[in-house]
Amino acid sequence: MKNKINYLFKNTVIFAISNMSTKLITFFLLPIYTWKLSTSQYGIIDLLFTICNFVYPLLTLNIVESVFRFSLDKDVSKEKIINIGINCGILCLFFGLSSIPILYLFNDYKNYALLFYIHLSLLAFSQIFLSFLKGQEKLTEFSIGNILNTLLIAVFAILFLVVFNMAIYGYFLAYIISNIFTILYAIFIGKIKISISKKYFDKKLFKSMLKYSLVLLPTSFLWWIINSSDKVMISSFIGSDANGLYAISYKLPSLLTMIGTIFNQAWLFSAIAEKDSKDFEKYHNNIFQNLFYLLSISSMLLIIIIKPLFKIYVADDFYMSWMYVPYLAIGYVFLTSSTFLSTSYNVHKDSKGFLYSALLGAILNIILNFIFIPLFKVHGAALATLLSYVIVFTYRLIDTKKYVKTKLIFSNYFLIFVMITISLLTYINSPIEYVLQLLLLTITVIIYRKYLVYYCKMIKEKIFRKADKREV
User: Fold this and answer.
1) Ramachandran bin of 76, using left for φ above 0, alpha for ψ from -120 to 50, beta for the remaining angles
2) Which partner from 166, 225, 328, 369 sits 20 to 30 angstroms from 208, CA to CA?
3) Which residue in 446, 448, 46 sits closest to 230, CA to CA?
């Protein structure tokens, strides 16, 4: 068990550095965006980038997922895998051209059609190459690539938005240039041979990769619906200004996914390595309980600080977006927990498990958006997103029992109750809300103090162990 924890801890640290660095940079960029862009401009950008993140998996046959998963197998040619990935990236270059005339049909978006296409194409290749690094377990190199990408976005965003006042054009250029550098880095560090030669094209392997990725393609679309359809519907029903506020409210709760992403990315490698061990179920449940606890405490803390933080963090026009954060903060706890459960689908290459759970969440999300947005405006979209995440989590909790039985114990329900209570207190708009929220948070920390002590001891041991090795 100790070796398992050490392996997981090592990978967690690598992903932690990567995710914390990228999220921290993004965190400091947000005030610049709200300062230099209007709510309408930010709403336009957010919608275009949301569409782009949906379209590139579609145009590449979702090959990113297969490049990563098949690269983890020891008995497959890496050259053949990346060759298939590059060929699918070329499909994006070709079919992506159709986005230009489509965007020209809309007055708000036609001026950015060419930039959208360039960003779409470069994003596809950067993700393919970075996934290849990750699949080869070059985790340090993969993490550096992510940090480099985000750091360059920050540098060029400041240059184009603050110095040159290029607004939406500058935003696009920052992403385009950073993706170019990321692609070059991944090619160099991964020693990737750029070739579309038939010599490396394995039809049998291509069919296997395609079978895996195509089943996940509807899943990507369905998750796009769950995560982003509310933005499209808000823009349509209410307007770009409202979507700009909602997009900002997404930013801080998404920091919670950093915790989950760190765990889940590292956990996937451990789950694949340990899937046949006798004590895997015990190991799995131990990790799940720790993850759920960390996410819940983080969610509570974020909800408590959101109002005073937004007073100084965002421009005045964006302040009211704090109202939607509590829904999304709780939702991300369930989203990240369901992602942890879905590791079982990755391990067993069960694409259908991803598909069915996402289908259920997407259908519910669309129905609830149509009901709630006309009734409750932006609040309705946030509530629909929260409920969709809860449904997906519940489905996966039940469905993955065929691989490993995950226990949802009483303490998990208690944490959910406290999160909801702290969220409701946020809307009191009185100093007493902070007193009550902090009291609930303190009680929760005291009850679960053993977890905090465990984390601190583990980190302390690792730090001092490394220090002792350096002295020797």
Assistant:
1) beta
2) 225
3) 46
Closest by Cα among 338, 244, 290 to 455: 290
Tokens of residue 119, six digits: 């960003």
Tell me: the pLDDT tens digits for 8-38?
A: 666 666 766 666 667 677 777 778 888 888 8
pLDDT at 464 over 70: no
Q: Cα–Cα distance between 47 and 317 in angstroms, integer?
A: 19
Contact present, 103 and 113 (Cβ < 8 Å): yes
Q: What is the mean pLDDT of residues 353-381?
A: 90
For residues 264 and 339, the answer to whether their CB atoms sit within 8 Å is: yes
Q: Which amino acid is at 330?
A: I
In the Cβ-directed half-sphere of 27, how many Cα atoms lie within 13 Å?
14
- Which residue carries 């984390």 as its tokens? 455
**Total residue count of the chain as it appears in this document:** 472
Q: How many CB atoms neighbour CB 183 within 10 A?
A: 23
Q: What are phi and psi of 61, to 5 degrees?
A: 60, 25
CA–CA distance from 204 to each of 21, 71, 135 (Å)?
Answer: 39, 15, 20
Are the CB atoms for 177 and 117 separated by under 8 Å? no
The 3-class secondary structure across the chain, one letter per residue, is CHHHHHHHHHHHHHHHHHHHHHHHHHHHHHHHHHHHCCHHHHHHHHHHHHHHHHHHHHHCCCHHHHHHHHHCCCCCCHHHHHHHHHHHHHHHHHHHHHHHHHHCCCCCCHHHHHHHHHHHHHHHHHHHHHHHHHHCCCHHHHHHHHHHHHHHHHHHHHHHHHHCCCHHHHHHHHHHHHHHHHHHHHHHHCCCCCCCCHHHCCHHHHHHHHHHHHHHHHHHHHHHHHHHHHHHHHHHHCCHHHHHHHHHHHHCHHHHHHHHHHHHHHHHHHHHHHCCCCCHHHHHHHHHHHHHHHHHHHHHHHHHHHHHHHHHHCCHHHHHHHHHHHHHHHHHHHHHHHHHHCHHHHHCCCHHHHHHHHHHHHHHHHHHHHHHHHHHCHHHHHHHHHHHHHHHHHHHHHHHHHCCCCCCCHHHHHHHHHHHHHHHHHHHCCCHHHHHHHHHHHHHHHHCHHHHHHHHHHHHHHHHHHHHHHHC
Indicate the pTM of the whole model: 0.69
